[in-house]
Amino acid sequence: MLQSSTSHLATALRLCVLLCCLGGGTAGVAKELQLTQASIPQLSAAMDAGTLSSERLVQAYLDRIAAYDQQGPSLNTVMHLNPDALRRARELDEERRVSGPRSPMHGIPVVIKDNLDTADMPTTAGSFMLAGSLPPDDAYVVKKLRDAGAIIIAKLNLSEFASGGALNSLGGVIANPHHLGRTPSGSSGGTGAAIAAGFASMGLGTDTGGSVRGPSSANGIVGLKTTHGLLSRDGVVPLALSFDTVGPMTRSVTDLAVALGVMTGVDPADESTQKSINKFYTDYSQFLQSDSLSGARIGVARVFMNDDGEVDWLVESALQSMRDAGATVVDVEFPEWLLKSRGNFYRAIRYPEFKAQIADYLATLEGNYPRDLEGLIAKAMTLNAKRDDGVIPNPSRWSLMRKEVEATDLMGFEYRAVKSHALPLVAETIAGLMKDNNLDAIVYPTASSPAELIERPAGTSEPGSGGSPVILANLSGFPDLILPIGFTGRGMPVTLSMLGTAFSEPTLIGLAYALEQRLQAIRLPIHTPPLAGDTLETE
Q1: 3-state secondary structure of 114
Q2: Is 211 a catalytic residue?
Q3: Is the overall model pTM greater than 0.85, yes or no?
Q4: Per-domain residue ranges for the chain?
Q5: What are the distances in angstroms from CA 64 to CA 106, 376, 449?
Q6: Fold observed for domain 31-533
Q7: Catalytic residue among 113, 144, 225, 355
């Protein structure tokens, strides 16, 4: 572990300097904080100063959820509200008063995708087939957040079993707060929409084939697909463990850096975290340097452009901002074989692993739940119309289960060949491309066109088969940081992906922070404007 001996005082000093840069003043606390604009360090400083309470903060977020999730635009992001959130906030307020904060996340409200286990709230993966399921304990990252003093205020809607469109049989359709007729993307669509709408300071998503990055882009927020092995997947409903990662989603790079550090660590229950030994940090805020672009070399993968003129314009504007900040920008090309094969490689792993690994997860549950993929399919076939309790059919996801159940097992030659040879080849190819060009990151639009309409035309493609670049990070295990860079003329957000090599999160955070300070491209969605209670008096 790196920086394991970093003292809380040193972290606090860094955050105080950061607050001054963010306009917090010499004392680090403004007279007023706007809930939907304040950073986690600013909120923490106000609570340290005794001018803001966690209870007040939690209530303000709950008020926004009440106003905009089931009422108003009815975003439908929340699956379960935590009934103990306010009580927990009061406890943490008292603890702060008596003994000080546990971490920079002490008393900070967070929301998490409903495929991460919580012992005190159901974990359903968005499926009516797991309704009411209470796991035996918290997921590792959930426990780390709670131990750091964060307050989980809600479990969020998602694509069913973290795959497919932004809807599920138990929670229904999720809306995009920037445009209610457009998708928030999947599978972490509830987290993306909730963070954009200002329902919490930080959210957790999972990413197997773009599921943090698509929703971050569609909703115009910051997101991180972490290096495979940086954050534990213990207690996450699996989709494909060779690709599954957990990642933070926030309204700023600052908040992402603060939240990431409290979740890292080697977990005996997840062997992938062994890869992070001596490579992870407990404090990523130290990399928030506004001059990080100076002297950097950035590669541009233009093969993922030319689908939408407005998106391309914003990408070019961001590239020029990088040059203005002192970066060298060069064009790079991925090998043609990689671009043509990436979808096949992805599905050769994803389908067989879900078939095997979902059964392992289901075996941990108590109650009358299906025990394998065949059982899930059989249960799904009992629902063919909307029920009185709001449960709806989800044929598109359940049809995909047929392909998953027909996949080879984990001893199949294609699976073993891709796992043992193709995935290392992809990682070595991307790393070699970056090394030969002396690159700090490769960038491209996360999505080559804005979020699509919810009512899509028939014939949408299978996972991993489209023109999206995002699965390159899953195949390689590399990190990919998503940064808002602007909006189209019709108000839809556009983001830039920053792809690095394994455990290069510090570099990506620095580059993204430097660009973010120049662009300032995040905006509160038009359908979730400020409420009267969003102004937090701190004097």
Answers
A1: coil
A2: yes
A3: yes
A4: 31-533
A5: 21, 35, 29
A6: Amidase signature (AS) enzymes (3.90.1300)
A7: 113
